[in-house]
Amino acid sequence: MNDPYKVLGISPNATDDEVKNAYRELAKKYHPDNYGDNPLSDLAEEKMQEINEAYDAIIRMRRQGAAGGAASHTGYTGQSSGTRYADIRNLIRLGRTIDAETLLDGIPAPARDAEWYFLKGSVLYKKGWLDDAHNHFSTANRMDPSNPEYRAAFQRMEQQRYTGGYRAGPSAHDMNNACTCCNNLLCADCCCECMGGDLIPCC
């Protein structure tokens, strides 16, 4: 692949934070979900793959002592999702859930493995979206049932869910139901108004 620093549009002397910021900005710009059925979606996915590989290459080289880009980068090939996940795990540990989620969402859907679902579930859990976190832990455990970390997280959520240990946060489905509820109340209010009744308080 090309020089990973050029792919991210930064200098080899960029700080680690500058590398991460450049990656996040490009991930937001080229994430395939932004293009939907647009004819450019395939190009966006290819660009996202290139961005992921460049970011992984830089992190790997810096961890191997090649900080500042003193070594040649042109020979890099392949991708190591483990490098990116290690960075995401660290962000989650530091409580930087927004940054962690940005990196996770920048990974194209076809490349999302069991660890991706586990880490996304961890982010959702910290955000309080417990029902969605449960679903992601379930997917991670289903994709890799032999992993004790995924299994333990899923079992904890199962136990909390069925013993009343948490009140699930609103999912997209719940929000739709809430909107339907409000619409029904508004309709009932209109009927009451026509019949001379009092205003029905809505949510």
Could you give a quick summary of the protein structure above?
The chain contains nine helices and no strands. It is mostly helical. It has three domains: about 110 residues, DnaJ domain (Helix Hairpins); about 55 residues, Alpha Horseshoe (Serine Threonine Protein Phosphatase 5, Tetratricopeptide repeat); about 30 residues, no CATH class.
* Strand element count: 0
CATH domain class name of the largest domain: Mainly Alpha
Question: What quaternary form is this?
Answer: single chain
What number of domains?
A: 3
CATH topology of the largest domain: Helix Hairpins
- Label the overall shape: globular
What do these coordinates show?
- The chain is an all-alpha fold and 203 residues long.
- It has 3 domains: 112 residues, Helix Hairpins; 56 residues, Serine Threonine Protein Phosphatase 5, Tetratricopeptide repeat, CATH 1.25.40; 30 residues, no CATH class.
- Helix content is 65%, strand content 0%.
Characteristic terms for this protein:
mainly alpha; disordered C terminus; 203 residues; 0% strand; Serine Threonine Protein Phosphatase 5, Tetratricopeptide repeat; 3 domains; Helix Hairpins; 9 helices
List the helices and strands and how they pair.
Elements: H1 4-8, H2 16-30, H3 41-63, H4 81-93, H5 97-105, H6 114-127, H7 130-143, H8 148-162, H9 172-194
Helix pairs in contact: 2-3, 2-5, 4-5, 4-6, 5-6, 6-7, 7-8
